Amino acid sequence: MLDRMPSPEACLFVACCAAVVTGIATAVGAWLARGSTAVPAALWAVAGALALAAETGWRAAGGLADPAVAAAARLVAGALALCPAMSLLGAKRPQHGVWQFIVATLAVVVALPAVAATLVRPGTVPDVHPLGRWFLLLLAVVGWLNFAATRHGLAATLVTAGQLVLVRQFLPLAPSGETAAAAFDAGGALAVALGAAVAACQSACAGVGRSAATGTVARGGHPLASRIDPPFLALRETLGAAWTLRIAERFDAVAAARGWPCRLRFGGLDPGGQTGDAAWHREAARVFRALARRFVSDGWLRRHGWK
To answer: Does pLDDT of 219 surpass 60?
Structure first.
């Protein structure tokens, strides 16, 4: 039975191929998100996938034979893979560009034990402080929570589970043994690749659905909901729950101050029972567009159903 188990080199080759698929899927995601502040997060995901592909491919080819060097390379790849979640937390114009320097600093801080082990204590496995281990877990959970309640919930769960498997040796209470490490690497990389592919397919199919539904009036014929819901729900799937709820909060504050009956919920606009083309509809639409423009361009809004 043990003779039928795949070799570590074969498992690592599978992990490398899965990481390449992840890179392709996230690059497609970056293209689909063009015009939004989520593009840098997708590019961080591409960088993380390429780093994992290089690390597992090198190990599959017989390199990185030193366990200490292999562990350091894995920590660097894991640090890059966890950057997209942090990138999305700063995805608001105009600071979203500068925020990427903060994300890069985070990656350096997370990978610092690998650098220290390689340069200062050659031959030793990176010693990640317990607080650093909990921080890695926290970053992964935050990224998952941001999309758990969206249509990308399944994809986010697969990606997060795969990432945790790949960085398992640096997590809190991690076991000291490395039994079947290559097989776990293959499983984790496949989970991430599947999640990334599912997310890309969902985004692409949503775009096709919006094109097919152009001109359709949503929410039982309410004109304001038909304008706001398509781009708002697309924003929810692109940026996650954190910024979506913030946009809804700001919109509702303006609506309450001006006496509008509508409220913007996580699932779309609640028009408040009025279906006529009231004068405040145009003003409400302008307010939503102004809020959305902090995250997306006019071209993105038009692509996602803004009329």
So the answer is: no
Residue 70 near residue 126 (C-beta atoms within 8 A): no
Sign of CA dihedral 206, 208, 211, 217: negative
- Give the C-alpha separation, 74 to 166, whole Å: 8
The rounded distance, in Å, linking the Cα atoms of 29 and 60 is 28
Token reading at 100 = 């990427």
Smallest Cα–Cα separation from 88: which of 266, 250, 246, 287?
246
pLDDT of residue 207: 65
Query: d(Cα 108, Cα 80) in Å, to the nearest integer?
Result: 9
| Ramachandran category for residue 279: left, alpha or beta (phi over 0 → left; psi -120 to 50 → alpha) | alpha
* Partners of 268 in the β-ladder: 265
Please count the residues of the chain: 307
Q: Residues with Cβ < 8 Å from 263, sequence gap 6 or more? A: 252, 255, 269, 270, 272
Percent pLDDT > 70 in the chain is 89
Q: pLDDT tens-digit profile of 43-78?
A: 999 999 999 999 999 888 887 777 888 888 999 998
Angle at 26 between CA 25 and CA 32, to 5 degrees: 95
Helix ranges (H only) for 213-270 are 223-239, 241-258
Q: Please state, in angstroms and rounded to a whole number, the distance separating the CA atoms of residues 293 and 289.
A: 6
CA dist 116 and 121 (Å) reads 7
**Residue 120 half-sphere exposure, CB side, CA atoms within 13 Å?**
8
